[in-house]
UniProtKB/TrEMBL annotation:
<keyword id="KW-0808">Transferase</keyword>
<dbReference type="InterPro" id="IPR003473">
    <property type="entry name" value="NadA"/>
</dbReference>
<keyword id="KW-0408">Iron</keyword>
<keyword id="KW-0411">Iron-sulfur</keyword>
<keyword id="KW-0479">Metal-binding</keyword>
<protein>
    <recommendedName>
        <fullName>quinolinate synthase</fullName>
        <ecNumber>2.5.1.72</ecNumber>
    </recommendedName>
</protein>
<dbReference type="InterPro" id="IPR036094">
    <property type="entry name" value="NadA_sf"/>
</dbReference>
<dbReference type="Pfam" id="PF02445">
    <property type="entry name" value="NadA"/>
</dbReference>
<keyword id="KW-0004">4Fe-4S</keyword>
<comment type="pathway">
    <text>Cofactor biosynthesis; NAD(+) biosynthesis; quinolinate from iminoaspartate: step 1/1.</text>
</comment>
<keyword id="KW-0662">Pyridine nucleotide biosynthesis</keyword>
Length: 279
């Protein structure tokens, strides 16, 4: 595997590292217990978003957990709650919260774990024992920029506009939108929107621009007027990609990414579980 630019990445993924997650797991074990309950359910099932390091996926593989994407988060959480009393969801709190709310959980069942505060930041650690979802305090810097105010302005400027946002946006933004879903959902909604309609989108700008160019008969625009692309993702510039591909063509793997055997094996377990839930 190659990474065309070694400084590229995801700032959200970097908000949870393996040492912090191991430390959180140990503390939650002291609060919630570590033995299965009378029904044989795990006390906590760890669930990591796809945007996370191999080490975190391996952690989930080792501890009866699983990986999710924004498309399958709902199905993955159902899988997790069939096996455990609680879920520890990382690194994106918004995807976890929005999905759990849509599944009928309430906010008071979803305390946040802040890895930079003692005991996760809760005044009373028993909130974690009473929780259904424990949300890691991570976020996507791009999706967190969208606001309810932007939605209101879009509705004023384009009466009848349909507002669709990604579930990495905050709960308030998701609640104020007409629809929320993964990238695949956004692509489908815009494809199916009638000609002449307006769609305001709360997600990464390059996708929005691509869809706007693809459907010139519709008004497709980004909710955020101050375009702020993802600075870490865009380090995979086309020039770097071309350089990496040209090298592969000549038999050279540049910027090779390696994962040790144990990590690869355990991460694969968590990924395989996800594929079995949502092929
Ligand atoms: S937009 Fe950037 S920070 Fe946000 S999830 Fe994607 S890669 Fe990560």
């Amino acid at each position: 595997m190659t990474l065309p630019n070694l400084s590229a990445g995801c700032s959200m993924a970097d908000m949870a590292n393996i040492d912090q997650v191991e430390d959180c797991w140990e503390q939650l074990g002291e609060i919630c217990g570590t033995n299965p309950d009378a029904d044989g359910k795990q006390q906590i099932v760890p669930v990591t978003y796809m945007n996370s390091s191999a080490a975190l996926k391996a952690f989930c593989g080792r501890h009866g957990g699983i990986v999710c994407t924004s498309s399958n988060a709902h199905a993955v959480l159902e899988w997790a709650f069939a096996r455990g009393k609680r879920v520890l969801f990382f690194p994106d709190q918004h995807l976890g919260r929005n999905t759990a709310l849509a599944m009928g959980m309430s906010l008071d069942q979803m305390p946040v774990w802040n890895p930079y505060k003692p005991a996760g930041g809760a005044e009373d650690p028993s909130v974690y024992a009473d929780a259904k979802m424990i949300l890691w305090k991570g976020f996507c810097s791009v999706h967190q920029r969208f606001t309810v105010d932007q939605i209101e302005r879009a509705r004023k400027a384009y009466p009848g506009v349909k507002v669709i946002v990604h579930p990495e946006c905050s709960m308030d933004v998701v609640n104020a939108a007409d629809g929320t879903g993964s990238t695949a959902y956004i692509v489908k909604e815009i494809a199916n929107a009638p000609a002449g309609s307006a769609v305001a989108v709360g997600t990464e700008i390059n996708l929005v621009n691509r869809l706007a160019a693809q459907y010139p008969d519709k008004t497709v625009f980004c909710l955020d007027p101050v375009v702020c692309p993802c600075s870490t993702m865009y380090r995979i510039h086309p020039a770097y990609l071309a350089w990496a591909l040209e090298n592969i063509e000549q038999g050279n793997i540049v910027n090779r990414i390696t994962v040790d055997e144990d990590t690869a094996r355990d991460a694969k377990i968590a990924l395989q579980r996800m594929l079995e839930v949502h092929p």
